[in-house]
Amino acid sequence: MKPGPVERRSSQRIVTHQLGQNRFWLSWYAGRVLLENLSIGGFSMSLSTPPASHRPFEFLVERDGILGGVSGLAQVVNYNSHVNGGLAGCRFVSLSDEASDRLTDWLAGHVLDVAAVPVSDVEAEDIVLGPSIV
Known about the structure:
This protein is of the alpha+beta class and 134 residues long.
């Protein structure tokens, strides 16, 4: 039996779309795409072909309905192809403290919005900053 993919993230992946609504977008050199998931350590996005992985790229993450964004440098660390295209996993290479704080706030707010059970602000932030449970 072939082993499954190795979890590379130290922080929890947060699914970025719920109930048919896409909440986070990525702008980068190849255009604007929906993010599949996002964490304080990186993100993944659906792409039909493998992206360049030999050098970091500039990005801007935007949250639906919020002005401004989170920008920095990221690098592709893996690409898994499947019938409908593929999924590129990226890690943040450079993210300022301000951008990291804003991303944490966004993700905690998203967790509060989509949680199936009641969670407090503190619990939502703990989920975002906590270890990956995937």
